Structure formats: C-alpha cells, structure tokens
Amino acid sequence: MKPSTLGELKQTEWANKVGRSVKDELRTNLMKRLKENQPVFPGIVGYEESVTPRIVNAVLSRHNFILLGLRGQAKTRILRQLTSLLDEEIPVIAGSELNDDPFNPVSVEGQETVVECGDATKIEWLPRDARYVEKLATPDVTVADIIGDIDPIKAARLGIQLGDPRSVHYGLLPRANRGIFSMNELPDLSGKVQVGLFNIMQEGDVQIKGYPIRLPLDVMLVFSANPEDYTARGKIITPLKDRVGSEIRTHYPATVEEGMAITSQEAWVMREQEIKVPSFIAEMVEEVAFQARDDARVDKHSGVSQRLPISLMENVVSNAERRALMLGENTAIARTTDLYSGLSSVTGKLELEYEGELKGGEAVATEIVRRAIGQVYARRGINLETGSVVEYFDTDNTLKVPDSLHTEQLPEVFAAVPGLIDAARNLAEGTGRDDLAVAAEFILEGLYARKQVARSEERGYSAAEPDMSQVGTRQRWN
Fold this sequence. Notes:
Rossmann fold; Helicase, Ruva Protein, domain 3; two-stranded antiparallel sheet
C-alpha cells in the first residue's frame, strides 16, 4: 500500500531521499544499469561506441546537454528514452502544479499546504512518463509559453498583488519541475526566450512582465539542434551555450550493415500476407541512403534522414504485396525493380542543390537508386560469370519481362539468356523458383546499373549503347 499522506511517507525510504535532485536520480539509476551491463538506450543502433558513451558521461556529470545532428539521427528518441533512467514514480503534493516535493515544496501553494496540513498533507504518485516535457522551438514561442505569465484574473480571484508568485500561470518549464525538459531545434527560439531560459537554468529567477519571480526548479534540461544552426553567429546567445554542460554530436549509420539493422527494426514489413525480402534487396534499399548522402546534388547541410530507407523499404514491400494480390500469389517476394516503384518515398526526403533542382527530383532519385543497385551488384556479383549474358544482348537480342507472369514463372523467361540462370543460382537465397527469378532479375538490373546492358519500357533489356569516350578500350565488369 503506497503512502497517501506526508506522515505515512516519512515512514518510508523516501525520507532518506530528501534533497536528492532529478540529476542525482538519473545518475543513480544509470550507475545501476551500467553495473548490471544493461543497454542504456535499447533500440538505438550504431551509437554504442560514439554517442552513447558521451551521453552517459553527461548524465554522470549531472550536465544539461545538447544533441547536435542532422535530421533523422534519433535525437528525439534518445531524449525521450531518458525517462527510463527516472524512478518508476515519485511522491508529489496532491494538486500541485509544479510537482512539489512533499519534503521541500517549491511553489507558494505547496508550502502553504504543508504548513496548514502538516503530516496530513495529501500525496499523489507521479509516473516517470509524466515527468518528461517536450517542446519544439519555433520563432513564435514566447516567454509565457516556456516560463509563464502574470494572470490578472487569478490574482483578482486570490486577492493578491500581480507581483505575488501565486499570480503566475506557469509555463512548460516550471511544470517540468522534478523531471526532464526537452527543447527540440533550440536555435529557432527567439533571443528573448533564450535569455529567460538560461536565467531560470542557472540563477533560478526570471522576470515576468517586469516582476521578478524566484523559481528554484529541479529540472534536467536537454536540447537538440542542427549543428549548422547551432554554430551560426546570432542563432544561439553565448550565455545559453555556456550553460549547456555537454555538446554531443550524433551521426548517420557508419556502415550499410548498421543502417540495415536500423531499417529492419523500424520498417513496417509484417503484413497479413507472407513477405520475403532477400538480403540483397534490403542492402540496396540501405545503399540508396548512402548514395544520396554522397550525391553532390543533395544538400549536405540538410542531410538525408534515416527515414528514407525505412520509408523506401515499406514501399518496396508494399509493391511486392500489391503484385502478389493482383496475380494471386500466396507469397509476396520483393524484387529489384520494386525499388524504382518506391521513388515516391525518396523524392520527398531529398533537399536538392541548384543543379539537382534543374534536373528534377524524380530524375535525381532515379539515378541514385540506379547507382545503389550497381554498387550492391558490384559487391555481391564480383565473382559471377556474366560474360555470356552481356554477349547475348550485344548480338542484338532483347528480353522483355512480362508484368502479368507470376514470379515463379519468370525462370522460363530468364532461361532464354545463356548463363543467366546459372549465375542466379549463386545468388539465390532460397531453393524456390521465385528466389531464382529474383536473383536473375537482380543480375540484369545490376548489369543495367553498371551500363553493361540497356533497359527501356519498349524493348526491355537490350545491348548497351557504346561509350564513345572509350571506343577501342571498352571494358566490362564480369
């Protein structure tokens, strides 16, 4: 039975926690987690040796900190997971706006309640999730939104002066007392609000409508920002930067394998129908993001979010699902051409430079997808014998793959190309005919991406156009 009054609370272990700050609470629970070798941020992939240790150091140092990184680098997810380091619940004075500690209330109302009621003061229990307050910074955010504002009606109802702390309608930061206050995109906050923020952080006081208000809050402050905006002159006032204890840089996945692990974890691929996604398809989906981040036509300051491969994977699976439903197939299997059908999930996530805008978003995205396919084919098909496949098309043969055929019927179509099925067997990840068909199509699309064969809507696969700059020295990848 949990205590319901201050008197009952005094008889529990909470009496020994008087004066413990929220930063001490986070530190204690983090130390316990580290001793037990538990993951600090479950589900966060690729930060184990870079970002996570720095966040751990910041929490152990009882620092307010900021995460600097481009979009789609799990900044908000990490900040929200900090609540897992809080106690499951804490006692607060019942009805308190500021989550007042029964042993040390901050608000005037809380102090008066304890004086009047003593050990009979009613206690409520606040769960950890309710102790996290998050705000997206925008230029129109005011001091009233974050700190609070004088409420004349409240003052008149209570019969007090406007300068009395009880006349304040509290903003988000005071309401985060004894918890975590998170501000996303900090540089978008106006300078006036930033001043109020660092005053309340350091000195615990602030002026609201000209009235000095003392609020000794117990809050862990965490922020996120784009590094370009954070370091630009005039975006962040220097005193606020100086009061942020740790500045931690996030990053995109360092390897395709890390990216694939994130996409596999986040993408919605569990559909009503059985779905098969060969590993080389998943690798190509992830490679699209890597190629986009390296493309000169894509704005590097904006970045390419990890949401791109997640959305693309979902679209690839959906296109396979659509095909299976239309053809009456029991199992939907993703194919290389499904990547081109998922361009709608790529174009909206690319901020293009001037050159890219001239070319057009869809054209740039198509080239990026094609390069990604070629890159994965270069890694996977390095030992494949495809000389006879290329030679078949060079002798003026073509191959058109009908859309109306079941995937398991395609091996008969691909068998017309000498050596293609044999090469596909070395790549197929299963023994089914659909696995063989998907592998064969991957080889053709890889050769197309490497410009060893051509492909068009009218003719299908055909001989590649000669590269006039390499006449006499034309080389092929086998």
